Amino acid sequence: MAAMDEVNSHFSSYPDYVNQKLQIASDTFTFAGLKSLINFPQTIYMVRDPLLTASIGKLELIDVFVSLGHKIPGQPDSIISQIMDGMLVAVHDASGIIVSIYPVPQPNSRPISMPTMENSIGGATSAFNEDLEANIVLLRSHLNCPDLKIQAYNFGGHVKSRVILCYIDNEIDPHLLDNLTQKLEAHQKTEISNLEEFAHILKFSKYSLVNHYMTYELPQNAVRALKNGKAVLFIERVPFSIALPSIFSDFFISEDDMNHPPIYLWLLRSLRFIGALLTLILPGLYVALVSVNPDVLRFELAHSIARSRLDVPYPAIIEALLLLCILELIMEAIIRLPGSIGPTITMVGGIVLGQAVVEAKLVSNLLIIILAATTIANAVVVGFQNTYSLRLFKYLLLFMSAFLGVLGLLSGLLILCAYIAGIRTLGVPYLQLFRARGEKNV
Amino acid sequence: MKLRIVIGLFLVIMLGGCWDNKDINHRALPIAMGISYQQGNYEVFLDIPKVTEKNEGIQIISAKGNSISAAVNKISMNLEDQVDLLHLKVLIVDKAFATQGLSEITASTIRSRHISPKTMFVICDEPLDRFFKGINNINNGDGKEIYDFFQKNSGWNPEIAHTPVWKVFRSIHSYTNDVVLPIIKSGESTAIQSMGSGILKNGKMVARLNNEQTLLYNVYDGNSLDGKIEVIGKATVQIVSSRIHNESKFVSGKPVLNSELKLKVIILDVIGNPSVEVIKTELQILLRRVMDQIFRKVQLANADIFGIGQHYRDDLPRMELAQWRTKYLPEAKINLEVTTTIRNTGNLKLR
Fold first, then answer.
1. Which pick of A29, A91, B102, B273 has the fewest CB atoms within 10 Å?
2. What span, in angstroms and rounded, lies between the C-alpha atoms of A280 and B145?
3. Region class of A25: left (phi > 0), else alpha (psi between -120 and 50), else beta
4. Cross-strand pairs, B162
C-alpha cells in the first residue's frame, strides 16, 4: 500500500517504530505504532482476541475489525498524526481499510502521589500529576456532581497540547465563563507549553505584579475553587491545576483550614494576614524609624538601636538592601540545589554569614532580626506564587520609607491598595473575598 | 502610562529630600533640657545619654545665646552629631526664670515643633549648673534618671505633679485653668529629690505646694496612682482608685462647688487599735484640712489650679469669665465630701 510505505519511510529512523504483520484466518493485518507510547504485546493480544473469536464464529472479519477502532482516511498525513498521538494504526491488507485503535498505553507518568509544592495538614494528600486523565479522575472523585462541566480544547498547530476546562454550571460567573471560552477559542492555533504562554492567550498584562491564577496541586483546593465560582484548567504535562481568577483572599484562605475548628480557622487566617503585613512593612519600618523618623520610637528603644548601629558605615537603606539581596540569593539558590546540599547553604547563609556580617559591623543586630522575621513571615501566605508578589512589594515600601519615612510607608501601602483594587482578571475584580464575581463587558 | 511612572519616580526621588536624613546613630538625642535666663541671655543645658557600647552615663553640654534655638544651634555646631530635640522628655527651668515668666519659652516650644508638646515642664530649686553637675554622677546609674523620674511606668509618684508643655500653654491662654509644675533638685542619696510643686499662673510661678498637698491635688485631678496617705496617728492608707464628682452653683452671686470624692483605699498599717469608722472620718478631716490649705493659697495667688472655673463657663458670659481669677475665684468655696471605701484591711481584721 502506497500510503503505508510513505508512513514507513517517514518513521524509518525512529528506533521505537514498530510495523508488524499478523495473520488471522486468511486475512493479513498490518499494525503500526510507536512502542514508546504503546504497550505492544498487550495491545496485540487485545486486538487479536476478538478477531480470532470472529474467525472461529464465522463472522465477517472486516466488520469486527472496523469496530475495534474508528476508520481513518488513507492519507499518509493523517496516519502519521494518529501514530504521533499514540494510537495503534491497523491496516487490513486486502481491502486497504485503515483503523485507528486506542491501545494499551505505556505508563508515562508517575503514579498519583504526595504533593511536592503544597503541604496538606489534615486533608487528602494525593496530588495532581502530569497525566491529564489521572487529574480528571482525581477531580471527579473529589467532586462527584452532575453539574461539573468538562470541556477539552486542542491548542497548537505543529506542536499539540490539550487543555481541559472545568467548571460548575450553576456556580461559575457567566461573564467570566464567556470571557474565558472566547479567549480560549480565539487562540486555538497558539502553542501552550508553559504558564507564560497560557497567560498570553488570556491576555493578562505582562507587567502584572500579582498572580491572576492560583496553581493547585491538591484536588480539594481545586474543588473549592470550582465551588466558589472559579474555572479550573488543566494543561497537558503541567502537574497542577490552574484556578482562574485568583482573588485577594487566596493569599490567606486554604482548603485545609476547613479541617480545623472555626476559632482556629480564623486565628490561622488572621495570622497569615499579619504575616503578610509584617513582611511588607517591617524592612520599610526599620529604615523609616532609623533614618527618617526616630522620634516615633520610645526613647529607650531609640537609644538601644543607636547603640546597635554604632560603627555601621552605611545609611539604613543601603544596609537593608545589602542584607535583603543576600537573603534573596539564598532563597533562589536553595531551589536550584539538590536536597542534600540545601541545608548546608541555609546554615552557611543564615547563621555563619548573618553572624559574621554583624561582627564585621556591616549591619546592625536589629536588622538581622527584622529581616529574619520578614523572611519567615513571607512564607506564611498560601500559595508559593503569592510570595513573589510580597517579596517585590516590600521593596516599594522600603524605598518609599527611605524617601519619606513613616509617611512614605503609609503612602506606599496606599499605592499598593490602589494597585490591588485596580486589578481585573477576565473581568473579575481582584479585591474580593470568598467568591469571584464578575462584571459585564470588560 | 510608562511616562507617567517615570515622571512619578523622578518626582519622588527629587522631592523626597532623603539625602539629608541622618541615621539614628548620628543624632544626639537629649532627654532633658535646662533653660535659665539672665540679663537677656538664655543659657541652655542639654542632657545627652552617651551612645557607646558600654552605656556609660550622660554628657552635659551647655551654651548661651539670645534665644533658645540660637543656644541649641551653637551646641549642635560644636557637637559631632546633630542635636535632635524630638526625644526631649523633660524641660527644666530654674526658679528665678519660673517666677519671671515662662510664657515666651512655652510659646516658642510649641511653635518650633522641634520639641514634643508632651515634654514634662519642671522647675529646678537650685541653679541649673549645680543641678546638672549633681545628676551627672556616675554612681547614680546609667544617666537616664531624669527621664525615669517622670515616667508613669517607672519612677513617677503621685506626690509629684505631672504637667506637660501643652497644659502649660493651655493655662497661659485660658481664663479658668492654671497648672502646677513639679519642683526638683539634685538629691543627696538619690539623683533627684522632689521638692513639692509650684503653682503657675499665666506662666509665672506664684506659690508653692508641698509634696502632701501635691498628692491631694493629683487625687483631685484624677491622677492618683497608688498614692499613700498617712492618717496622722492612726493609719496609713493607699489609694487604689478615686473618682470625683463636682456640682457647681452660684449662691448669692458667689460660686460654690460641691465636690464628692470617692476613694477606694487599702489599709497598709495602723497605729494602736482604731476602728474602720475612725480611720474614715480622720481621713475625711485630713483631706479637708489639706484642701483648705491649698485653696487658701490658690485664692491668695488668684491661680485656679483645680480648674474650678471650668464648671462655670456656661454660667458666665465671656467678658465676666475674663475676670474669673480676680473677681470670682477669691469668693469661691469648695465643699469637699470624702466617701471612703476600705477595700481590704490587709490580712488583719479591724474592728
1. B273
2. 37
3. left
4. none
Q: For testing the chain B interface, which of A206, A291, A297, A367 should be mutated: the one with the most B CBs within 10 Å?
A: A291
Superfamily of chain region B26-209: ATPase, nucleotide binding domain (3.30.420.40)
Q: What angle do CA A31, A32, A38 make, to 5 degrees?
A: 105
**CB-side neighbour CA atoms (13 Å) of A38:** 29
How much is the ipTM here? 0.77
Contact A307 B53 (CB under 8 A): yes
> Which residue, among B9, B24, B85, B147, would best test binding to A if mutated, counting the most A CBs under 10 Å from its CB?
B24
Opening angle at CA B306, ends B246 and B250, nearest 5 = 50
CA–CA gap between residue A109 and residue A129 (Å, rounded): 7
Backbone phi and psi for residue B158, each to the nearest 5 degrees, phi listed first: -70, -5
Residues of chain B with CATH 3.30.420.40: 26-209
Under DSSP, is residue A281 helix (H, G, I), strand (E, B) or coil? helix
- Percentage of chain B surpassing pLDDT 90? 4
Looking at chain B, which residues constitute the CATH 3.30.300.210 domain(s)? 223-346
Q: How far apart are CA B36 and CA B132, in angstroms?
A: 12
Q: What is the pLDDT of residues B143-169, one digit of tens each?
A: 677 888 888 877 788 888 888 999 999
Q: Which residues of chain A have a Cβ shorter than 8 Å from any chain B Cβ?
A: 289-292, 294-295, 299-300, 302-303, 305-307, 309-310, 312, 315-317, 400, 402-405, 408
CB–CB contact B16 A404 (8 Å): yes
CA dist., res. A427 & res. B332, Å (int): 73
Rounded to whole angstroms, the Cα distance separating A325 from B33 reads 42
User: Could you give the CA distance from residue A292 to residue A57 in angstroms, rounded to a whole number?
Assistant: 94
A442–chain B nearest CA distance, Å: 20
Count of positions (residues) in chain A: 442
**Cα Rg, chain B, nearest whole Å:** 24
A395 to A33, A296, B216: CA distances (angstroms): 55, 22, 55
Per-residue pLDDT, B55: 65
Regions in chain B scoring below 70 on pLDDT? 16-19, 55-56, 138-143, 224-225, 232, 351
Q: Which residues pair with B197 in a beta bridge?
A: B182, B209
CB contact under 8 A, B29 and A403: no
pLDDT at A440 over 60: no
Task: Mark yes or no for CB contact A299/B16 under 8 Å.
Answer: no
Instruction: Please answer yes or no on whether A402 and B49 come within 8 Å at the CB atom.
Output: no
Give A384-394 pLDDT, tens digit per residue: 888 889 999 99
Select from B258, B256, B238 the least CA-distant residue to B247.
B258
What is the rounded distance in angstroms from the CA atom of residue B133 to the CA atom of residue B193? 14
Whole-prediction pTM: 0.79
**By CA distance, what is A317's nearest residue in B?**
B23
Which residues of chain A have a CB within 8 Å of the CB of B21? 291-292, 315, 402, 405
Contact list in B for residue A303 (CB cut-off 8 A) is 29, 49, 51, 144
For chain B, the maximum distance between any two Cα atoms, rounded to a whole number of angstroms, is 88
Distance between first and last Cα of chain A: 55
CATH superfamily of B223-346: Nutrient germinant receptor protein C, domain 3 (3.30.300.210)
Nearest CB among A299, A307, A316 relative to B51 is that of A307
Pure H helices in A309-383 = 316-336, 342-346, 354-359, 365-378
Strands B27-28 and B82-83: parallel
| Gap between the Cα atoms of A424 and A305, Å rounded | 43
CB atoms within 10 A of CB B61: 20
Q: How far apart are CA A113 and CA B85, in angstroms?
A: 64
Which of A294, A402, A403 is facing B24, going by the closest CB pair?
A294
Residues 6 or more apart from B162 whose CB is under 8 A from it?
A: B120, B150, B152, B156, B182, B218, B223
